[in-house]
Design brief:
Length: 566
């Protein structure tokens, strides 16, 4: 009879024997005398728990990690054994555990198959991400993350688990997508054709204009909606078509110009983008994809803001989804009011910058340089305002700088900040861009528009404290600082590269800011509703270089816009 301690699960079976694993991993048998039945206690096993955990980590769905042998654990073991050429038993063992561990060690770096193109991997990564698998970057590279997602998909789809990208895998993903996306019951065939045509002309992936609402069309619609700050539905509607046609009227000429600039820039870099004719054809799309793979960017094959930034093409569009307002029947657009890249080798004219404190210089690479020694205060000397040491330090340093500036004084060992600014009228709906390089692992800088004196206005702050970056939007009133919004997952810009910071404010006070084309924070503030009087950049400690400052606003009609300061 079974001992009373074996109480987990009892199975009554017909003649024969069934194997269960005890806590030691050894078989545990229990048989009634003379009954013809075998009773098995499915006891907890450390070996089973270890195997379950390792299989789940490898992308095989072994179910809960509970140390109890169930159907999902058995299926996952069988799948792993088949995928690795082992005898298929479906049973856990220490030798199996050792095989999984050794396999995971050798798969930390997954070589890209020589028979699979980067474009195939890109499409597989895109399809897996659409299905919710963990793909953090679509880059055309066969890494462990992609291999794990492939194994998980293969396991969930009852496919042979290899973890390898292949044309057969891509075909399966496409087939499953077509089965999952129902034909739209609302959109007519003609509407879908019109939407496909509009999307294709913009460089979105539409291989065939056929009026069919397939997964490729749905994915292209979702991509357009994301790029245009629209609600992402992936559905073809009359509103979507109207938006495409409106944007086409407003931006097609500029878009063709950008495509031509991209073609010229890619050709100059050795990428074969075809003739620089402003037409988005297959050669241009393939050249963009290749460039994006080489640059380590998400591969889309489209002309977008990140690509233009990478190619150093100045963007002066009319915003994303912000269609402006009319004044006397004329459309208001964003126009530059301050454009500075220091190509004249100085900051004393065109425009004229005022140095409020510290020193600046323009080096031989036409970069505005500023260095301020970082004097980190002791933690117990910093006022505890927010409970966040990094935030408290930024507020303390910034407000002390305003106080010293107000007294016109500097500490004995030199300035604690370097501040430069220029007077320029800026509408309360604006866009700003800074291209900077960061050469400090501890430091901080702020920039933004001021109103009624440089101690009032909005400031966008980037800081690194002990290697941890932060990105914050601040409101300053008479030198007193308030946090408006704070970003998460902020990149460390101290990497030897040039980075672009973008900041936009709409008429209703909505603001958005990001780095290198990635939106990091969105918020709304109406602390300042009137127009601004100028712009400042402040180094609060560290080594920074400024390569471009661009400020655009919507203060005047295009027909009567004054020339920007430059």
């Amino acid at each position: 009879m079974l001992r009373k301690s074996h109480t987990a699960l009892v199975a009554v079976l017909t003649a024969g024997s069934l194997l269960a694993y005890s806590a030691t991993g050894a078989p545990a048998f229990a048989q009634t005398a003379g009954s013809g039945y075998v009773q098995i206690a499915a006891a907890y096993s450390q070996v089973v728990q270890n195997v379950q955990y390792s299989l789940n980590q490898a992308g095989y769905n072994a179910g809960p990690v509970d140390g109890l042998m169930g159907s999902r654990s058995r299926s996952a073991i069988e799948a792993y054994q088949r995928a690795n050429g082992l005898l298929v038993t479906g049973q856990p063992s220490q030798s199996l555990m050792e095989h999984i561990s050794a396999s995971s060690m050798t798969q930390q770096t997954v070589p890209q198959s020589t028979s699979v193109s980067g474009q195939t991997i890109v499409e597989i990564q895109s399809a897996l991400r659409e299905r919710g698998y963990d793909i953090s970057a679509i880059n055309g590279r066969m890494n462990e993350e992609t291999a794990a997602a492939i194994r998980a998909y293969q396991n969930n789809s009852n496919l042979t688990i290899t973890g390898q990208a292949s044309d057969d895998l891509l075909a399966n993903l496409r087939y499953q997508a077509q089965q999952a996306v129902p034909q739209s019951t609302v959109a007519s065939k003609k509407m879908i054709i019109d939407i496909q045509s509009e999307l294709r002309r913009r460089g979105y992936e539409i291989s065939v204009v056929n009026g069919e609402m397939d997964e490729e069309t749905a994915a292209a619609i979702r991509a357009y909606q994301e790029d245009s700050d629209l609600k992402v539905t992936g559905k073809a509607t009359n509103d979507l078509l109207a938006n495409l046609r409106y944007q086409d009227q407003q931006t097609q000429q500029d878009y063709s110009s950008y495509v031509r600039d991209v073609q010229q820039s890619l050709n100059a870099r050795g990428y074969s983008a075809g003739p620089a004719d402003g037409v988005m054809g297959p050669s241009t799309r393939n050249a963009i994809r290749t460039f994006q793979v080489d640059a380590g960017d998400e591969v889309s094959g489209r002309v977008d803001r990140q690509l233009l930034n990478r190619l150093d093409i100045v963007v002066a569009d009319s915003g994303t989804g912000d269609q402006g307002e009319s004044v006397n029947g004329n459309k208001r657009e964003y126009v530059p009011v301050l454009s500075e890249n220091f190509t004249d080798g100085n900051y004393t004219k065109n425009p004229t910058w005022n140095v409020f404190q510290g020193t600046f210089r323009v080096d031989n690479q036409r970069v505005l340089r500023s260095y301020v020694k970082t004097n980190l205060a002791q933690p117990n000397t910093i006022p505890q305002r927010t409970g966040d040491a990094s935030k408290d330090l930024l507020f303390s340093v910034l407000e002390q700088a305003f106080q010293r500036e107000g007294r016109g004084s500097q500490v004995d060992n030199g300035p604690t900040q370097a501040k430069i600014g220029t007077e320029v009228p800026i509408h309360n709906a604006f866009r700003m861009r800074m291209r900077v390089d960061v050469n400090s692992n501890d430091g901080r800088f702020v920039f933004g528009p001021y109103q009624n004196g440089v101690s009032n206005g909005y400031l966008l702050a980037y800081s690194i404290d002990n290697g941890y970056p932060a990105f914050r939007l601040l409101s300053v009133t008479r030198g007193k600082t308030q946090l408006v919004a704070e970003a998460s997952d902020v990149p460390n810009l101290n990497d030897g590269k040039v980075h672009q910071i973008d900041w936009r404010r709409n008429l209703d006070g909505r603001m958005e800011a990001g780095i290198d084309g990635v939106s990091l924070l969105r918020t709304k503030s109406n602390t300042y509703r009137n127009d601004f009087d100028g712009f400042t950049f402040t180094n609060l400690g560290g080594d920074f270089g400024v390569r471009q400052i661009l400020v655009e606003d919507r203060n005047r009609d295009l027909s009567s816009a004054d020339s920007p300061q430059q």
